[in-house]
Design a protein that fits this description.
The protein is of the alpha+beta class and 121 residues long. It has four helices and two strands, in the order αααββα.
Length: 121
Amino acid sequence: MMSEEQIKSLHATGQQLRRGVLELVVLSAIAAEEEIYPSTIQQKLKDTPLEVKEGTLYPLLTRLKNSELLQYTWRESTGGPPRKYFSITDNGREFLDGLLDTWNQLVTAVHQNTQNHLNNE
């Protein structure tokens, strides 16, 4: 049975993995739409291990926008102030393609290197 310290370490490692793929998932969600409102991104990730809170999503969107991977436009809202709708830039699409290539390479490598462990269980 794992110790409390090992359980904490496992949880921390899981958090790091989720953070690492969040950029890929958020860019993919935005690329799938012409424009997207941040709460729609949150809704897409709801009830998944990658569920994202506003305090995580908005700084990520700002960083991606400042890196010229995203852009936004203001849209009037029927029930309040104008809203920012995000879209992916051409640079963002190229970046996303590179992330997807890297992701696929990692998935293959992890699968190849964990198969022996899984087969011996």
